[in-house]
Amino acid sequence: MVGIVGLIVLIGGGLLLFGMVTEFRPDPVVPVTITGMPSRKLDPEGVFSLVTWNIGYGGLGKEMDFFYDGGKQVRPEQDCFNRTVDTIGNFLRRKDSVDFFLLQEVDRGSRRSWFLDEMKWLTTLLPGFCIAYASNYDCRFVPVPVTNPMGRVISGVVTCSRFRPEEAVRHGFDRHVPWPGRLFDMKRCFLVLRYPLPDGHQLVLVNIHNSAFDTGGVLRTREMEMITQFLVTEYQSGNYLVAGGDWNANPPGFKPEEVVTENPVKRELFQDLASFVPGWEFVFDPAKPTNRNLDQAYQPGITPVTIIDFFLVSPNVWILDVHTVQTNFEASDHQPVMMQFSLIPYP
């Protein structure tokens, strides 16, 4: 018995030491490499289209549950993963008129996604786009669940654009996850791309994936404070701001009774986001869910759903249309949201 206890202590200590040595420690602000540089410059008088979608790394299709959310599975079978990735790819290819894609949970060599480099996959899939990637999860070995560990995880957010950006920058969130959990936890961020305009102003595009599994909303509150400070400062400089992604919280004005679905609709409890940026507009489709529970495989009429994927825009951005694309959660636990917008010119 003593020997077994000693072995457990030795293994646990070894994992902690390994985690400390290999912990991902990015600087607060890091320039990001842009792959591909299209020659097109952004016309401030144009109408622009944008899709945000958490693709669930290709591993969270309708057949999947996930252990973090109360399910049992860690990763899909490889043939199921391949089918899901093909479905995601077909969707992106069909949206050949879209100007910007804001994607979340894009893996780059993770066990859970069969070590596919999805950044290279996107580069092949979307010729003519520039692509920028910012890592928010880089762990050599995630040791849970104990009987079937997640293992290696490299993942992040990706912005794809038909226009030539001036720069791409990763802005890291402050993290207050205590040791030792932080050794194996995500280091979340938002990715900023800047597009210069002829009058000296910029369109600033922000790709967001905020915290989940956040009891009391402590992490999300701090994340929203940091996002708000960034957005307001940029707006005061005369720039146009569009922020979109997976907020892991319901938008202001969300009403479960307005969601047209046979599934039960849940609330993601969190303080009112409108209090963070008064006067700005939260843009979403109130009639369609964007996210489902992962405690079980997707079952129409049974699996709880909600809205947590949406946009936040500055007062100088004019919204022409927004709608959630109904995919029945075929390829991800999220559904894509598409928006059209234009820029209100300064006098």
Break the fold down into its secondary structure elements and pairings.
Elements: H1 2-22, E1 29-31, E2 34-35, E3 48-54, H2 78-94, E4 100-107, H3 118-125, E5 130-142, E6 151-161, E7 167-172, E8 189-196, E9 202-209, H4 218-236, E10 240-246, E11 281-283, E12 291-292, E13 305-306, E14 309-313, E15 317-324, E16 337-343
Parallel strand pairs: 3-4, 9-10
Antiparallel strand pairs: 1-7, 2-5, 3-16, 4-6, 5-6, 7-8, 8-9, 10-14, 11-14, 12-13, 15-16
Explain this structure to me?
A seven-stranded mixed beta sheet has the order 1-7-8-9-10-14-11, covered by helices on one side. Strands 2-5-6-4-3-16-15 form a seven-stranded mixed beta sheet, with helices on one face. It has a two-stranded antiparallel ribbon with strand order 12-13. The protein starts with a helix and ends with a strand. By secondary structure, it is of the alpha+beta class. The chain contains four helices and 16 strands. The mean pLDDT is 90. The chain has one domain: Endonuclease/exonuclease/phosphatase (Deoxyribonuclease I, Chain A), CATH 3.60.10.10.
**Helix vs. strand class:** alpha+beta
Q: What oligomeric state is this?
A: single chain
User: Any low-confidence stretches, pLDDT <50, length ≥5?
Assistant: none
Q: Going across the biggest sheet, name each strand in turn.
A: 1-7-8-9-10-14-11
Taken as a percent bin, the fraction of beta residues is: 25-35%
Q: Write down the Rg.
A: 20 Å
- CATH class label: Alpha Beta
Task: Briefly note the CATH topology name.
Answer: Deoxyribonuclease I, Chain A
Order of helices and strands: HEEEHEHEEEEEHEEEEEEE
Number of helices: 4
Query: Termini separation (Å)?
Result: 79 Å
Mean pLDDT across every amino acid position? 90
The CATH homology group name: Endonuclease/exonuclease/phosphatase
Shape: globular
Q: What level of helicity do the residues show?
A: 10-25%
Count of distinct structural domains: 1
The CATH architecture: 4-Layer Sandwich
How many β-strand stretches?
Answer: 16
